[in-house]
C-alpha cells in the first residue's frame, strides 16, 4: 500500500510537471503602460525600421514571421510568443511596448539597448504578423 501511494504521488508529480512545461504565466502590465498610445504612426517607414530591428534582436526566438519558431526557441524554458495569434494582437501597443522594454525570464530587457522610438517601431512591425 505504501509503495502504491509513492508510485501514485510520483506519477502525479511527473504529470503535473509535464503539463506546466511551456505554460505561459500571466504577465501583468501596469495600467499606465496598458493605456499608453503609440507615438509612432503605423507607416511603411516605421515598419521597415521595426523589421530591421526585429530581424537583429527578435527573430532568433520569435521566428522570421513571428510564429515563435525561431532557431533558439527550442532551447528556451518558455515558448516565445506567437505574434500572429489573436491573444497577442488583442493586447494594446502599450502592453507590447512594456513587455519589450522590461523583459522577463527568457525574454530580454531592451531598456537601454533600444530607444523608446525603436521599440515603438518594433511594436508596429509586430502588428504586421496579424492573421
Describe this protein with a few key phrases.
about 130 residues, mainly alpha, 7 helices, globular
Give the SSE layout.
Elements: H1 2-20, H2 31-34, H3 44-57, H4 59-62, H5 86-89, H6 93-102, H7 116-127
Can you give a write-up of this model?
By secondary structure, this protein is an all-alpha fold. It contains seven helices and no strands. It has helices at residues 2-20, 31-34, 44-57, 59-62, 86-89, 93-102, 116-127.
Gyration radius (Cα, Å) is 18 Å
Structural class: mainly alpha
The ordered string of helix (H) and strand (E) elements is HHHHHHH
Dominant shape: globular
- Counted by DSSP, the helix tally is 7
Counting DSSP E segments of at least 2 residues, the number of strands comes to 0
**Poorly predicted ranges (pLDDT <50, ≥5 residues)?**
10-22
The assembly state of the depicted protein chains is single chain
Mean pLDDT: 88
Sheet-strand content, in percent, reads: under 5%
How far do the termini sit from each other? Answer: 54 Å
Largest sheet: none
Helical percent range? 40-55%
